[in-house]
Amino acid sequence: MRRLIGVVVLAGAALAGAGWLLTAPKPLPEGSLDGATGDAERGQLVFTAAGCASCHHAPDAEGEARLVLTGGQRFASAFGTFLAPNISPDPAQGIGDWSLDDFASAVKRGVSPEGQHLYPAFPYTAYARMEDGDLVDLWAYMQTLPASDTPSQPHEVGFPFNIRRGVGAWKMLYASPDWVMTEAESPQLERGRYLVEALAHCGECHTPRDALGGLDRSAWLTGAPNPNGRGTIPGLTPDKLSWGADEIAYYLSSGFTPDYDSVGGHMVEVVENFAALPDEDRAAVAAYLKALPEGGRLD
Q: Do 235 and 221 form a contact (C-beta atoms < 8 A)?
């Protein structure tokens, strides 16, 4: 019996050790972007398409104040309420003392400079597909924004979800850099895929999630319950959205639907972001959505 207990204890310790190693944060290799020089003007377009200000400006900020990335907006979920952090260039309260490598690991791997997993309320599973050139340009642009010395507020997440090491196991299940639409048959579709699946991270809201909070890629963009518990987020596949490509593009520039309704909720800022992009980008998103299969199953 003692031997059996000893074997069980050793096996348990071995499994725990293996799990600890497998769930460790995995930042990008240090120096992987050495020599890269960003263009702040191009980075502004990346910043806009990625919706950085939409989540990180202060609650109720308007106009130019939305470029002060103070944080503080609250995002409710089934796992707790996440508060957007300060990502302004302030060296003490923001990310002003981060290196480009730090920024890249946070954006594409969900790993903080301190070596902790970031919660996937930050859509790094989508940003993992971001091109290195766009990431470097984004970093260059963010250095030009005003600093804020407002401290970030802690997330309101209880046990066991406050154990960040568990996010490592979550990443093993859901953090895939693979495209959902594996074949983009034209440059326009390729651009639309990049905007929808990477920069604009549309799937984060418009795709249903399973019990662990992972996106159900077999029902891609078919709609989902609103994380705050109020209503649903509409589907964007052709069986859910009957608009033509021109109507989708017009909505993304004006906020008006073909039925003369107007955009509301958090989508207001999404439309404002898309309206600031070139016409070709809105047309590319529309082409991507019209190319989706009914039911959203792409595999």
A: yes
Q: Name which of 61, 109, 125 is nearest 88 in CA terms.
A: 61
> Per-residue pLDDT averaged across 80-88, rounded?
97
Say whether pLDDT at 126 is over 80.
Answer: yes
Give me the architecture of the 187-296 domain, per CATH.
Orthogonal Bundle (1.10)
How far is residue 165 CA from its own chain's centroid? 20
CA distance 205 to 192: 17
Task: Assess contact for 50 and 42: CB atoms under 8 A.
Answer: no
Beta strands in the chain, from DSSP E residues, in sequence order = 74-77, 80-83, 224-225, 232-233
Of 151, 145, 15, which Cα lies nearest the Cα of 88?
145
Instruction: Name the nearest CA neighbour of 159 among 214, 80, 229, 74.
Output: 80
25, 29, 33, 35 alpha-carbon torsion, rounded to 10°: 140
